[in-house]
Amino acid sequence: MATRVLRCIPKFSVMTTFSMKPGLRSTVSDWINYNKEISDTTEYKRHLSHGIRMEGRTLCNDTSNKTKWGEYDSSRRLRDRINDITLSKKSLEACAEKLDMEMDALTLSKDAAEHALAATLLPLEVTNECLTLRESRQGNELVSDPVEAELKKELEVINKAQQILQQCIDHAFKHLCLLQEARHQLTLDLQHKTEALDLDMSCLSLSVTSSEISLKPNPTRVPPGSTTPEQWIQFSQRNLTHAQEEMQASLDLRENINITIAQAQNELNSQRMATRFAFRKRTHQLEQAHQELQWQIKAIQDEINELKEDIVRLERDVQSKMAPLKLVHTRLEYRTRRPGMDLCRDEVQYGLVEETKELSSSILALKQKLAQAQDSLQVLQLHEARMLADLTHKQEALSVEQRSMQTRQRLNTAPIKSKPLAVLPLTNSSGMHKHYPKYKDFA
């Protein structure tokens, strides 16, 4: 069969066949299979690429939508938070305004009580002067008569009024401190909310085209001291509740102060009239030995001078301790800058700490002793002024009982009824306003 085929082929064709390399040729079926493989592979890879492209487009669309929605949702949350802060800030501002008004009203009530207390000084001075004048009576005239009893009763009424008024002043002062503390808490809360509001407004104003945006290290960290929204609400509500409670207590205190002032004035006026009526029934002479009083004044003045010298000495000692204290503080501060493992709590550190404690203890002891000396000096000076006034009264009152009546005439120079001054706005539990007069004096 092969021989037959060769016979049919021309001569030159046979020669050409023998010149080729049969091993490098493939068959038609191989060629077709190879082309089909190439086509199938191309189709498969193109299909995979098309799928990846479609998934990429879908992912781009999804991430773009999520990004836009996330930015919108964050902006919405910021706007809601800004509204919450704004509402809370308005509540705090309204409460702070009411608190300021209440503090002003309580200050007026305290001033009224102080004026009322100052107005008792003249009756107290006159009563003490009259009692002192009558203590100089001699012999049978030195009796415990109704005049003396009324004067002592008047003195008790004045002292009682002074104690009550002083208590009102002290309570008002303490409550003003409480109101001021509540106001400070509101102010601090307002400052924090203002800063937070400014920051949230700045965050809301930012956009993807803003020039100040950048990547930050660990932006999702939880800052130390972070609170929950419930704690945030409770904190402001606690401040508001505390302020409202203090304002209500201040309202009650103001009502009590003004009622106390009116009652004290009525009691003093009634007792003054009783004493004046008793004075009309009886008169006496007065003589006072003021040499002992003068000696006491001289002794207390000498004591005051010596105490002043001791105070100056204590002040110098306190001042002399400040430079060593500054030195040890500076050394401690500088040593905090030691780097790395050299920031060691060595013997020097313990020595400096101990030196700080000793210096602080010394300064505290000196200051306490200085405060005691200053308090003692003030007490002595006040007592000296009282003794000088008493000596003046005694020197002027070496005469008969009529001098006591003349002394009490000083009370008649002032009006019996105090003039109503500034009206203090008060509100009772029902919210209605009350108006109590601000008494200026009890004379």
From TrEMBL:
> Where does the UniProt annotation locate this protein?
Cytoplasm, Cytoskeleton, Cilium axoneme
**Where is this chain primarily localised?**
cytoplasm
The keyword Cytoplasm appears for this protein: yes
- Does the UniProt entry include the keyword Cytoplasm? yes
Q: Which residues form a coiled coil?
A: 254-317
Keywords in alphabetical order: Cell projection, Cilium, Coiled coil, Cytoplasm, Flagellum
Name the InterPro entries on file.
Tektin-like, Tektins
GO BP of this protein: cilium assembly; cilium movement involved in cell motility
Gene Ontology cellular-component terms for this entry are:
axoneme; microtubule cytoskeleton; nucleus
Recorded superkingdom: Eukaryota
Question: Mind telling me which Pfam families this protein's record contains?
Answer: Tektin
Can you tell me which family this protein belongs to?
Answer: Belongs to the tektin family.
**What protein name applies here?**
Tektin
Source species of the chain: Silurus meridionalis (Southern catfish)
